[in-house]
Amino acid sequence: KASKRVYFNNPMWPGEAHSLVVEEVLFKAKSEYQEVLVFESLTYGKVLVLDGIVQLTEKDECSYQEMIVHLPLCSIPSPKTVLVVGGGDGGVLREIARHSSVEQIDICEIDKMVIDVSKKFFPELAIGFEDPRVHLYVGDAVEFLRNAPEGKYDAIIVDSSDPVGPAQELVEKPFFDTAARALRPGGVLCNMAESMWLHTHLIQDMISICRETFKGSVHYAWTSVPTYPSGVIGFLICSTEGPPVDFLNPINPIEKLEGALKHKRELRFYNSEMHSAAFALPSFLKREVNLL
Ligand SMILES: NCCCCCc1nc2ccccc2[nH]1
Fold first, then answer.
1. What is the ipTM for the molecules in this complex?
2. Which of 3, 46, 83, 184 has the highest local Cβ count within 10 Å?
């Protein structure tokens, strides 16, 4: 069976391309917001692509999903209310469900097709929607947050796609202002924050906005995702003014997480050493972005 190769060229990574061998295309359609593609790859399992950008593969999604959730949630004592912006594939919900202190998980995803496609093709991620603490809102997160009660959330996780489509508004100041207002004092925000190799200007812009909006602390952390061009993705992690948050030394030890397993799947990437290491930054990045 001849398999073909797909090449991912994109203005987000000019001058380079990432490619994967395709065994079989499983789904391809245009939603109200973006093109949604799912295919079986030769070596990374099933792959979810939105507007030509790989969002996740079965093989390496654990790196992104576990780090974007446990870096913030393991940094605050017993998180209870969490909001997910984006995250329609369900992987972030699956990871939040490991925290037994969490009582309510709101998720605001704009594109229903992403949810339906994940439930059909990525059951090991969409399992996150089965947790009884999850409340799903399909709509625009800026609108959702404008109507959210002040100080409602302990943590907000922004699992967005790139700011070149429906997620454009999730890197702009109004969004950060509404997120800060919806967080309790000492609450934490964790956003997907692109690649240190490719997007230091965008990272700097986000940091500048967050330094104004979040009077607690602002940190950049990163992880390895082989199927993201440049091989890494970063996270911008902020806390509002209030009880200080020490992101570099997780207070919720990993044992508590393992113990809270609801769905019998062990952590494949996150642990407390990877947590602390994620905040270690290369010298060029420390020079190019003002993190302290
Ligand atoms: N919603 C999951 C995160 C999606 C991130 C996708 C992504 N991965 C990238 C790698 C390099 C440049 C831009 C990128 N955008």
1. 0.95
2. 83
Q: Give the E-state strand segments of 110-263 in sequence order.
A: 134-138, 153-159, 183-192, 218-224, 232-239
Closest CA to 181 of 155, 211, 150: 150
Residues 6+ apart with CB under 8 A from 82: 73, 96, 102, 104, 105, 106, 153, 154, 155, 156, 157
pTM: 0.96
Q: List pLDDT tens digits, range 208-263.
A: 999 999 999 999 999 999 999 999 999 999 999 999 999 998 887 666 676 555 55
Residue pointed to by tokens 């100041």: 173
Report, as an integer, the average pLDDT of 171-187. 96
Q: How far apart are CA 9 and CA 102, in angstroms?
A: 40
Q: Which of 228, 230, 235 to mutate to test the pocket of ligand 1 (most atoms within 8 A of CB)?
A: 228
34: which 2 tokens? 């973006």
Tell me, yes or no, if 159 is annotated catalytic: yes
Q: Which atom of ligand 1 is nearest to the CA of 13?
A: 12
What whole-number distance in Å separates Cα of residue 61 and Cα of residue 44?
10
Calculate the CA 54 to chain-centre distance: 13
Cα of 9 from ligand 1 centre, angstroms: 13
Residue 72 has pLDDT above 80, yes or no: yes
Q: How far apart are CA 159 and CA 84, in angstroms?
A: 7
Distance 270 CA to ligand 1 centre (A): 19
Using a 10 angstrom Cβ sphere, with 0-12 exposed, 13-18 middle and 19 or more buried, the burial of residue 242 is: middle
User: Per-residue pLDDT tens for 11-59?
Assistant: 999 999 999 999 999 999 999 999 999 999 999 999 999 999 999 999 9
